[in-house]
Design brief:
about 80 residues, alpha+beta, 3 helices, about 15% strand
Length: about 80
């Protein structure tokens, strides 16, 4: 999973903020978001969760969802 996160950081420079949380040391965060297994990925836009992936990630779907949210955000900033 770490490799994928590093790749996302390279592919979306200055457009995407990535963070990781250790499920043992950040247990309150795990409970807050209802994480039941790892890995779990969340995509947020303007503080709202827009997508969640549990377990194995379809990389094409992940990239498509990120592009969609970033394109939407870019369109909003032009208005």
């Amino acid at each position: 999973m770490s490799g994928l996160l590093y790749q996302l950081r390279e592919d979306f420079p200055n457009r995407l903020r990535l963070t990781r949380a250790n499920s043992v040391t950040n247990f309150s965060t795990v409970v807050h978001f209802g994480v039941r297994g790892t890995p779990t990925l969340f995509l947020f836009h303007k503080g709202r969760q827009v997508k969640r992936w549990n377990g194995r990630v379809d990389v094409e779907d992940l990239y498509a969802q990120i592009e969609s949210v970033l394109d939407e955000a870019h369109g909003e900033s032009k208005q």
